[in-house]
Amino acid sequence: MCKSDICFFFVFFYIIVLYATGLLVGTLDTVLDSTSKVAPYRILHHTPDSQVYWSIACGVTKEEIVQHWDWLQQNIMRTLSVFDSSEDVTSFVQGKIRGLIAEEGKTCLVQEDDPEKFREAHLRFEKWFELPPGEKLVTYYSCSYWKGKVPCQGWLYLSTNFLCFYSYLLGAEVKLVISWDELWRLEKTSNVILTESIHVLAHGEDHYFSMLMHLNETFVIMEQLADYSIKRLFDKESFQREPALSDPLQITKRGLEANAKSEQFRTFFRLPKEENLLEVHESFLWVPFSHFNTLGKICLSENYLCFASQDGSQCHVIIPMREVVNVEKPDSSSRALTVCVRGKRALRFSEVRDYQRLANTIRSRCGINASPQHSASSEVMCCDCFICAILLLFKLHPVVCKGLKEKMKEQSWNIHFSEYGRGTSMFFTRKTRDLIVRGVPEALRGELWMLFSGAVNDMATHPGYYTELVEQSLGTSTLATDEIERDLHRSLPEHPAFQSDTGISALRRVLTAYAYRNPKIGYCQAMNILTSVLLLYAKEEEAFWLLVAVCERMLPDYFNRRIIGALVDQAVFEDLIRENLPQLVEHMTDLSFFSSVSLSWFLTLFISVLPIESAVNVVDCFFYDGIKAILQLGLAVLDYNMEALISCHDDAEAVTILNKFFDSVTNKDSPLPPTVQQASVDNLPTVFFFLNILTKLCWSLQKYGNIRSEEVESSRKRNKLYVIQTLEDTTKQNVIRVVSQDVRFSASQLDELYNLFKRQHFLSCYWTMNSPALLHHDPSLAYLEQYQLGFQQFSMLFSLLEPWAFCSIKSTLSLWVFRLIDENQDGLINFKEFCCALGTFVGSLLCSNKTFNLSAALLLCGAALVAYHFQAENSNHSLYLFNLEPWGSLLSIKLSGRGKVDLQAYLKQWQNEILKKEESIKDLPRINQTQFIQFSKTLYNIFHGDPEEELLYRAVAHVTSLLLRMEEVGRRLQEPSSPPESKKPANSTVGEESSTEESSTTPESSDTSSSHNSQDLSETEWSFSFEQVLASLLNEPAIVSFFERPVDIQTKLGLAKVAQLNNLPPLNHSVIG
């Protein structure tokens, strides 16, 4: 049997399996599920020794799939006979299949972007999941969702804030809704059953989605949405520089794909965050040092023209538009153009499909950017008022002390510059990396750091920026500046450059200027050590821009309070250890030890553990290869010490082994004098072996050079979700432990309350960038303060948890309570304030026994009085002085039983409580006529709708009548000693009007008793004390019974969790702060 017959038989066999048995995943679902659009007939190709099945064609009917099969016979089967080996046959078939899939993908994309079909999908999305109308559907895919061991064919919907899946098969409905901020894992997986699938871990449950026609595209969109959610909700980013992501209501699939490409583009070429990938053109570039054309892609952004060869590592070049002086089109037949840059250099691109438009685009952008500030001299300008490299000042620079090896290095680099160019338009090749590993000349180190990191472009496009920052930050006093002053003399204290005021002053200016530029980071420990090394080899302004490149691009999220970036890279490091050092993993199953030991490696780029003359070589590799160089060196360190680490008995012994190893590392090629070299050799045995850092770097590059930057970035994204959720979970436990000391809720109840509170906070950020929680976000606050609720969010959550289900004015009550507990008057409350308030109001009702605490009712009414007084008399928030503590202290007395209360015993007990706490309790004010009427209205509204509403109304009427009679008797007793009031109070009219209004809304019995007494006192100003109100309420069994009803908090928490997402106001609802 010939090779073509074998291939024919193999593919036809799978068609038979698909048609006759229906065993392939999703086929039965496709036939029975009315919502699925997956074709029931497919032609698959299976390559030898592989579990991957490639989709070649699909059809709705048998006739359609047969037509596809006939096409394959005519166009592919006949061609296979010309190949001699099975490898060639496989390669040809794979290439042809990829081409077919690419064409099929283009067709599918057009259909998916069809407005009519997308509108239908959006209507189904809204109908099935009942999310708020503002939720933006980004895209949708047909797939299989594995529920246990059974696949369900349905539709995967990806929106701005949620991952949703819906399937309806044989009367069984499967519905899944997961918010992106709840994801712990998001990764592509494969196993025996699922050749390719997407794994999602959320709420401790694993979810698998397979049978996706465009799995890579789906995964990229999911990854972008998850990352967008993290940055927006956890990091509080506003995306002002990224229009495609600035509005969560306008997120599109195209915008997410463009953002992903722009991120990859900026990371690869080390460009500023403002740059976006605008155009990509395939072309050939003439490489003068190799004398041939290399195939690659031209990438064009707002201010840069970049080229990368096809494999991504052979060579790449970055051309700032400010450096372009002309664009020529010498040969139209070859579709070529020549870009001329400063320094009499030219780059020739050929076979550019749309070379005419590309040339015009480059010309127009060069014309826009041609200005004095972008001149060639701008790259090397540095203000005279700042110092140059510190090594020059202390005469420790190779210009002064230059050995033979140093001269040889400089000669090698000068030859390289002559062949590959020098400056911003230099070619980056494998030879460049080899030269870096062999050692960078001391005289060129600062220049090359600026070039490799992209800091040279930042400084060139921001002339005078550093000078302005230094002037603006001069004399400022913040938490960051205090920390900087504390750490200044801890930065390389053994180095002579930082034993004088010159070096210390330069370090202070750079760190303070950066803290002023980026208050979100401010200052973090380890920044001083890194900046000290930068100042040794770079000018002061250059050191500042190098620090910007490290903190904001190369090591994102490293230097903040939670050092998330470093923890993420440690997780990446652990994955690499499992993959490359299995023997070490077998001996040390818990890799957390390496995370704790390696933290300083990542934060300081090995500067804190290696001698300075050796550490700078590591920094050289870092600026060229990024974090990959640190990971490679870390693996090499563990590999070199593997036998010793395996034989050690505890962590302390392992730490000692690693410390001795780092002490043994030297740099024999360093030209610095012995006074500067910091290798601690005095304490080592005389027989100890010294290892040259350059040899170690070469070895790590050779052994672990297969680690690709793209894989590292992918692993970073995968581990970032897990790291953040782990930190969130740890923080939740710490917060619950602190809050539990002040409230009566159990640990499990606090856990659920925290989840509800956090989700309510996120709900306030889902559909807007201007929520109070975002506008008032302060990263310097303790983490307990990071999640806060404004009034809207508090009102919605309070309405789900408050015990008075029949209350008709929940928003008003919520406003009063909110204003009472918001002590700092910022319009936001944190979790502890929320729990203390909720625990005070309903804490006694959470118990299963019949214990009664009237503090719930009086605190709520007291909040109403304070808030009403706030609205009526004082608009400057002065009444926020009425905090919750004195109310809670006065009313924390429990009474048992349902009958009448012994007032004498109660008041005596209360008096004792007051005497005990008289030093800490403020005097509570008396309430006047208007406030008393509002008090009564509050009680009426709370009781409205209750089954015993009539009885409660009568009880309120009795309370008001009793209070008015008590006030009348008190006034008559004081008449002989008190002259009568000659003037009617100003607010009596308001009181009469409110009283009339109240009479119209209450039963007749309450109207008769209360109006009679108000007429007797209408001519005088009257008020009630807190004691009088409390005693009157305690005398009514109906009111006591109402407030002593127990509340099943677990049921309320469960109902709140279900109803929270649907209990949202319109998106344009105004915020009350």
From TrEMBL:
Keywords: Calcium, Cytoplasm, GTPase activation, Membrane, Metal-binding, Repeat, Transmembrane, Transmembrane helix. One of its GO terms (cellular component) is cytosol. Residues 988-1011 have a biased composition (Low complexity). It is found in: Cytoplasm, Cytosol. Residues 971-1016 are annotated as: Disordered. GO terms for molecular function: calcium ion binding; GTPase activator activity. The chain crosses the membrane at residues 7-28. One of its GO terms (biological process) is glomerular filtration. Its main location: cytoplasm. Residues 817-844 form the EF-hand domain. Residues 439-626 form the Rab-GAP TBC domain. PANTHER family: PROTEIN VASCULAR ASSOCIATED DEATH 1, CHLOROPLASTIC, TBC1 DOMAIN FAMILY MEMBER 8B. This is TBC1 domain family member 8B. It comes from Oreochromis niloticus (Nile tilapia).
